């Protein structure tokens, strides 16, 4: 963990468990994002969602549009699907995505963006996140996040027994978690300039 001025608060994030998902006639890899925090900035103290790479690309662009004076961290490079099946390429992407989120969660300006919270704590799709964050849905951000929490009460313990092969063959597909959620929009957390965050732990090699 990194030291912080706001004593006692932590935000820990993991990117893990890449899996192949099938959609119509093509396949893609998505990743589990697990968040564990005691920060007053977050509605849920623990959450797990699954996101694909293009959703990270969307998030970065939206965060940049809303914080034009902030230099956002880079995402890992795009990798063709046939190459990402290589375990080394897959591990590099997982670490790159986690480093991206770690850096984003260091920035109070970015933490105040409700799109980030919806990305990390709901399974709403990108269009739904945008609509919710813009106040164009029947439900609030707060309601959307609590709706997701009520339908997905699970968080992996940090010390759980690791799989024999953490980056198992992504050909082993699993059922895709839906990106739909009946919910309305959460307003971003207003963080003062002294409100920093902790981030932790890259997944083990």
TrEMBL record:
Q: Which InterPro entries match?
A: PX_dom (IPR001683), PX_dom_sf (IPR036871), SNX10/11 (IPR043544)
Q: Which GO terms describe its cellular component?
A: endosome
Q: List every stretch annotated Disordered.
A: 156-176
| Keyword terms | Cytoplasm, Endosome, Lipid-binding, Membrane, Protein transport, Transport
Q: Where, subcellularly, is it found?
A: Cytoplasm; Endomembrane system; Endosome
Mainly resides where? cytoplasm
**Pfam families in the cross-refs:** PX (PF00787)
GO BP annotation list: cilium assembly; intracellular protein transport; vesicle organization
The residue ranges of the PX domain are: 9-126
Q: Which GO terms describe its molecular function?
A: phosphatidylinositol phosphate binding
Could you tell me the membrane topology recorded for this protein? Peripheral membrane protein
Q: Which family does it belong to?
A: Belongs to the sorting nexin family.
Name of the molecule in the record: PX domain-containing protein
Identify the species of origin: Xenopus laevis
